[in-house]
Amino acid sequence: MKQFEYISPCHFGLEAVLKREIVDLGFEILKVEDGKVTYTGDENTCARANMFLRTTERVLLKVGTFQAETFDELFEKTKALPWEDFIPKDGKFWVAKANSINSKLFSPSDIQSIMKKAIVERLKKIYKVDWFEESGNSYPLRVTIKKDEVTVSIDTSGESLHRRGYRKLTSKAPITETLAAALIMLTPWNKDRILVDPFCGSGTIPIEAALIGANIAPGIKRTFLAEQWLNLYPEKTWSMAREEAKDKQLKDIQMNIQGYDIDGDIVKAARQNARLAGVDHLIHFQQKPVSELSSNKKYGFIITNPPYGERLEEKAVLPDLYREIGKTFSALDTWSYYIISSYEEAQKYIGRKADKNRKIYNGMIKTYYYQYMGPKPPKRANQEGFHKDR
What is the DSSP letter of 280? Predict the structure, then answer.
């Protein structure tokens, strides 16, 4: 079976989480770099990666890599790639995105137009035509130039993979589904342990936790661009991936996942999103401020994304908010809590230095994942809300 190379991008700082996912799916890792992982697999890999990977934004099919310092080099080396192996005679293709880092070629628009011309020149000779109607399926290209090394790939996903298909309503500053999943996967939480998000917004963290706990594939409710590429991937690869996803789902399970927010309208939106995701029966949402969070359960988890104070008028209230967070969370003395925030003084006002602090880029915003580790539950514990340690 033919082997392909794939590239999956992720948030900076989460490469290790994505690498573990890819390895768990049985694919061979070729390279781990800032913000992306390169791996290899057969024709089934594309469908399975799109279906099951929770922490990547896309699955890119790699066409080739080469060095280029001039536009002439870019043209000739792009033209030398075997485009006919990827794009059929009626294929619609364009450079959808080009970015350049520390390279002599830096104009995205010039890079896009020159590479398009080079591909056309090659395919005109291969297919013996003078004009491409481009009336067939779409093959959007993505190009990255870093230190004059050009990496060319085709986007197999279409819409970004963080769009699972369930989030119709969002809060003011939503966290993406891929980042929420990664934050959960960076903790030892499992489906037998209670989990609370006291700043749940539109419900992304609780919903992603429920999907992980029930082993529901993140791509089960959506389609992918490469499903149309029958020249590369037989239709059966996609049906097989969907069947595998259905077989892996855990039925009739119970979880103790809770989401709270001070905004009642946002709580309603979270409930609707959970219904669309098919996990509303696994999550309890309620309108409640963080100050009212309490529990008689032990060894629970808090994973949350409180306000960052990106607007000037919001920054003034952050010290009091984070003091409240510290006071409330410290009362849950056997719990572990994980907080993502760009607020530099979060630890100061929480009143305790984090046991671990991981830097993660949420888009262009530098954030910190403050990790406060509670004690492990007894090995044979079997109280309501959890069963035993992993």
Answer: G
Structure tokens belonging to residue 129: 């035509």
pTM over 0.90: yes
pLDDT of residue 386: 41
Cβ–Cβ < 8 Å for 190, 213: yes
pLDDT digits (tens, 9 = 90+) for 350-385: 999 999 999 999 888 899 999 999 999 988 644 444
CB 240, CB 44: distance < 8 Å? yes
Residues 193, 20: Cα–Cα separation, whole Å: 22
Burial bucket for residue 136 (CB in 10 Å: 0-12, 13-18, 19+): middle
Q: What is the DSSP string of 30-75?
A: EEEETTEEEEEE-HHHHHHHHHH-SS-S--EEEEEEEE-SSHHHHH
Residue 291 backbone dihedrals phi, psi, to 5 degrees: -65, -20
CA–CA gap between residue 336 and residue 375 (Å, rounded): 8
Q: Which domains does the chain have, with CATH numbers?
A: 4-155 (3.30.2130.30), 177-216+227-247+254-372 (3.40.50.150)
Q: How far apart are the first and last CA of the chain?
A: 38
